[in-house]
Design goal:
With 430 residues, the protein is mainly beta. The chain folds into two domains: 3-21 and 350-429, Immunoglobulin-like, CATH 2.60.40; 25-348, Methylamine Dehydrogenase, Chain H. The protein is 5% helix and 47% strand. The protein has two helices and 35 strands. It has helices at residues 3-18, 345-348, and strands at residues 25-28, 35-42, 48-54, 59-65, 73-75, 81-90, 93-100, 109-113, 121-122, 135-139, 145-149, 152-156, 164-167, 171-178, 184-190, 197-202, 210-212, 219-226, 232-238, 247-252, 260-263, 273-279, 285-290, 296-302, 310-316, 320-325, 330-334, 338-343, 359-361, 370-374, 381-385, 391-396, 401-403, 410-417, 422-429. The strands form nine sheets. A four-stranded antiparallel beta sheet has the order 1-28-27-26, with no helix packed on it. The chain has a four-stranded antiparallel beta sheet with strand order 2-3-4-5, with no helix packed on it. A four-stranded antiparallel beta sheet has the order 6-7-8-9, with no helix packed on it. Strand 6 (81-90) and strand 7 (93-100) form a beta hairpin.
Length: 430
């Protein structure tokens, strides 16, 4: 390649990139060692928490990220406790429910922290036995929260100082989702002989509930996405104790009065099962399909409220535990230190922020050399794309220096990220 083509190729490439439309891609983030992620809880695109299982210490741990999942830190919790669920509502402010692993008869407890786990306050109601069943929690802010455990739904409007209860008789709370202090839906598992699942809605903050019958035999409501006062999605599993165990999506467009069952059999993937689902709004959502006896999973998306599905990418997860969509991206995870983050690839680079004051040197750069970033901004990490727009990896940046290891000769696009913005620059590896 002559000098002239090399000089102008980065500019040509950038304009080419901005005109290309490609599918989103999922990239593995190997930054959560020895922990299997069970649930994500993001406050915004950068600040998020995850409930994990530390396979070395055999206990559950809550971890925190402030840079969109690129790095994670553990926050102090209780040793030898099995965390069932958690809910963070702001930076450092969260709630968790757990049982004492050292005492098989110990009831569920709920604790609150206002300082990222440095101190925890027991806010469990003292006047009742919280039982041993499944437990889920959701707080809307520091004061208003809902806690489902066994056959009871608890509600607080003062951060756990006082609790009101709704007795749900012979059903167990499996999932819940409130869009505000008054409107919410809970999914249950009927402990009768037939093990049928039902959903209940409320428009008065849990004072009264209306049953929403799915009219589907032998179904457990595993997860709920209550989008608005009309649209509700639910991840359902029928034949709980049978051999079929067919997962599917239930959808209502009239606030639960009637439901459509959307089976996963429409996908041409041999024996795939639905393992995770999440919706950003009433039209846009994603699912993860898992093939048995393999580490292969498939992410599909819908942009028209499940009328059609588009293949997005393949991820390699042993057991898919959660799928979570934020404002601009998404996360999925499974057993053993596997976290995948969605990159919008070239579509993410369409809002190209170039800044002539940001210089990369040396450029071109030799393989395995240190790349210096001359800028008034301090960048925390960079996402590196190849010329097709495929995200290759994320690299931490320290003192505006980064090492380009294991990159073949070619032209790459660097998305430099700080806390407030990002900028894209091209670099040539020679």
């Amino acid at each position: 390649m002559n000098l002239i083509s090399t000089k102008f190729l980065p500019i040509i490439l950038i304009f080419s990139l901005l005109s290309i439309e490609v599918n989103s891609q999922w990239t593995e983030m190997n930054n959560c060692p020895n922990k299997a992620v069970k649930k994500f809880n993001f406050i915004d695109d950068n600040l998020g928490y995850a409930l994990t299982n530390d396979v070395q210490q055999l206990k559950n741990v809550i971890i925190k990220t402030t840079d969109g999942g690129n790095t994670w830190d553990s926050i102090p919790t209780f040793s030898q406790n099995d965390f069932m669920d958690f809910s963070f509502v702001a930076d450092s402010v969260g709630f968790t429910v757990f049982r004492d692993m050292s005492n098989s008869s110990a009831p569920m407890r709920i604790y609150k922290t206002a300082d990222d786990g440095q101190n925890w306050q027991d806010i469990t109601p003292s006047w009742t036995n919280t039982g041993m069943g499944h437990s889920v929690v959701q707080f809307l802010d520091e004061n208003i929260g809902f806690w489902g455990v066994a056959h009871v739904l608890y509600k607080t409007i003062d951060g756990g100082i006082n609790w009101d209860t709704v007795n749900l008789n012979n059903v167990s709370v499996m999932s819940l989702d409130f869009i505000d202090a008054n409107n919410g839906v809970i999914g249950t598992w009927d402990n009768s002989f037939f093990y049928s699942g039902s959903m209940y809605s409320t428009n008065d903050g849990g004072n009264t509930f209306n049953i929403l019958n799915l009219n589907i035999y032998n179904t457990v409501i595993d997860a709920i996405d209550y989008m608005n006062n009309n649209t509700v999605y639910a991840s359902c599993l029928n034949d709980w104790f049978g051999s079929g165990r067919t997962p599917f999506i239930c959808k209502s467009t009239d606030n639960g009065i009637s439901w459509d069952s959307i089976p996963i059999g429409t996908f041409n993937i041999n024996q795939a099962t639905l393992t995770a689902v999440d919706f950003k709004d009433d039209l846009n959502g994603k699912i993860v399909l898992k093939t048995p006896f393999s580490d292969t999973a498939y992410v599909y998306k819908t942009t028209d409220g499940t009328q059609s599905w588009i293949f997005e990418d393949t991820v390699y997860l042993q057991d898919v535990s959660d799928l979570h969509i934020t404002t601009s991206t998404a996360y999925t995870a499974g057993d053993v230190n596997e976290i995948y983050k969605l990159s919008n690839s070239l579509s993410d680079l369409k809002n190209y922020h170039d800044n002539s004051s940001i210089l990369l040197y040396p450029n071109p750069i030799s393989k395995n050399s240190i790349l210096n970033i001359s800028s008034e901004d301090n960048f925390q990490f960079a996402e590196i794309f190849d010329f097709t727009g495929r995200l290759l990896k994320s690299i931490s940046i320290e003192d505006n220096k980064m090492k380009l290891s294991d990159f073949s000769p070619g032209i790459y696009i660097l998305k430099l990220n700080n806390q407030n913005n990002y900028f894209t620059k091209s670099v040539i590896v020679k």
